[in-house]
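Throughout our pipeline, every protein is held as a single compact record rather than as scattered files. Nothing more is needed to write down the fold, since each code stands for a local backbone conformation. The record that follows is passed on verbatim for readers who wish to inspect the format.
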Amino acid sequence: MRIESLQPDEVFVFGSNASGAHGGGAARFAYERFGAVWGQAEGLQGRSYGIDTMSGLRVFEQQAGRFLEFAREHPELRFLVTEVGCGIAGYTPEQVAAFFAGAPANVVLPESFRRVIARAAE
């Protein structure tokens, strides 16, 4: 699923870097289209939410956990998650999908992440 536009209650979730330099990939799209803030690596930014995927898997996992908690605290919003970490950061869904396991119902994960999580639950 390619996210081109958002409904009023939707948030675009993208991979960022520690400096919040949104120069490429989904981060650039978030910056140009959905209000991502240059210089802000993590958290809600306009109609987007950044997760630092470029500072190693440990940081990525921690920030994914904080994102899921944020989503639980904001059931009025619907979070559309890109294949976070699987572009410029170079990870595979098999490496990172588990970071999003147990996501609340208002988090829409990419199909590749859903498949990995479902296989792990079998």
About this structure: Helices lie at 25-33, 57-73, 93-96, 111-121. The longest helix spans residues 57-73.
